[in-house]
Amino acid sequence: MLYSDTESVRTSRAKQVLRANPTGAILTAVGIGLAIGLIIRAAQPKAPTNRVQAILEDIEERLNELKAPVARKAAALADEGVSLLHSASKRVEKPLHRFAGDIRKHWHDLVG
Description:
- The mean pLDDT is 84.
- The protein is rod-shaped.
- It contains three helices and no strands.
C-alpha cells in the first residue's frame, strides 16, 4: 500500500526531527517506555496474600490489644504484692530475731 502525501511528509518530518535531536528522541522513547511499563504493572492483579498468614497476623494483633490491660493489672498486683511482702517482713523481723534468740538460749541450756 502506498503512503499518501501527508503521511510521507509526516514521516520525513519525524525523521528530520530525530536526526536533529537524537538525545531528546532517546529520552522521549525511554520516558514513554517507562510510562507504558508502569501502566502495565498497575493493571496487573495483585499477588494473592497467604490467607493463613493474614489470619494469624490478625489474631496476634487482637491478642496484643487484649493483653495490654491484663499486663497493666498484673504489674499493679505484683507491685502491691512486693509492697505487702516488704512491710510484712519488716513486721516479722523483730519477733523472728527474738524467737531465734530464745531457741539459741534453750539450745545452749540443753547442750551446755
